């Protein structure tokens, strides 16, 4: 958020001439009109002033004659990606930031929104599976390296994480690791750092955590299966994990099962209810997790362990284990039908 925003504050009674001086002096092309203490009453741009002059207002008139009293604003809780989207849709170069009371608390410029804050959190991508159900496509290629659109799905995943500021990657390999390492190398070409963790024997989704180096940043780690296609906002799940003081967070999806028959409920031989073609809804594991450093360090070395078992164990040990529902696009590319669907969907997802 620009540190100059307080220099842009004027009152509705400020003259148009003085507003012009503020806009010119701060070079942000906008002035912020405040009334009743700290409430945002409107904004004034050079375009507003120009249109006012053309309609006959005088430079000595009060700025409330030309200001936009219903400007597009954003919340202090909006992410950078959301701010960028708001500005893109409204063709705005800046957005006043207000709190829930309508008080002005800052200004975000398009330039700032396009700059993504770097995040040190380690990203651990599981890319060692055999991809058996996708044979023969995976006979000579690890599943995460299959192309969806014009890029390997692993590259699309890395680039999407990078768009949120993540750059510190660890990739677990096992099946045909050289295909992955020769393509990405150190990650420099993609603007990220990549460290490879090779499983001599498959250790399960959680067991591979024990192979990570001891010098990881002391921050929550995001772990994801390398065969997932999603446009989810990874910053949101990280913010949720930290704000809720979670020890382990599992991303989940809403999953429906539609029964095409009448379901009979009963007590012994007695029918108590008949539900015609019911739909049952469950949360299912989406293969994306946020894990705090102490849990990463607690994983036994070189022992097979899957993530559901790790979460169950930590729940029994009274750790704070939470679920985070994701509503964005998500696809686990495990079968040929999934792979075909991904080829059609990739063009509408806005992924890099």
From TrEMBL:
<feature type="domain" description="CBS">
    <location>
        <begin position="67"/>
        <end position="123"/>
    </location>
</feature>
<dbReference type="InterPro" id="IPR000644">
    <property type="entry name" value="CBS_dom"/>
</dbReference>
<dbReference type="InterPro" id="IPR050486">
    <property type="entry name" value="Mannose-1P_guanyltransferase"/>
</dbReference>
<dbReference type="Pfam" id="PF00483">
    <property type="entry name" value="NTP_transferase"/>
</dbReference>
<dbReference type="Pfam" id="PF00571">
    <property type="entry name" value="CBS"/>
</dbReference>
<dbReference type="InterPro" id="IPR005835">
    <property type="entry name" value="NTP_transferase_dom"/>
</dbReference>
<dbReference type="InterPro" id="IPR046342">
    <property type="entry name" value="CBS_dom_sf"/>
</dbReference>
<protein>
    <submittedName>
        <fullName>Alcohol dehydrogenase</fullName>
    </submittedName>
</protein>
<dbReference type="InterPro" id="IPR029044">
    <property type="entry name" value="Nucleotide-diphossugar_trans"/>
</dbReference>
<keyword id="KW-0129">CBS domain</keyword>
<feature type="domain" description="CBS">
    <location>
        <begin position="1"/>
        <end position="59"/>
    </location>
</feature>
